[in-house]
Here is the input.
Amino acid sequence: MLAHSISDYDLASLDFSKQAETAARMQLKHPVTGEALPTCIWLQGIDAPAYRETLRRQIDEQIEQGREELKALDLENRHLQRLAALTVKWEQVTYHGKDIVFSTANAEKLYREQVWIREQVTRFVEDRSRFI
Here is the structure.
């Protein structure tokens, strides 16, 4: 529920950039059963400056390269970069039998290789209610 009533409605009260910058904890769920897994990922929301900076950098690169069109793989790679930029840390990530230390590069690799994790992360970061 919003802190303001409609009578004191002000668009500035709906600026979520500061809240989105504070990472929220996402508990990873099993892709079939929905059961909570021990893995937790801390994520910023799409209103966070990190998201906007990554998006602007991607657009600048496209302009500098003179590319007018992007392929599906380009768009997917850009999406993965933005998700990785919003990932702050994680706990208990075991992949191929090894504990994986958090890094932006490792986050991008995990999201690239495990589409079900990418889908959960995408839904989480796009839900502004997680960052109020």
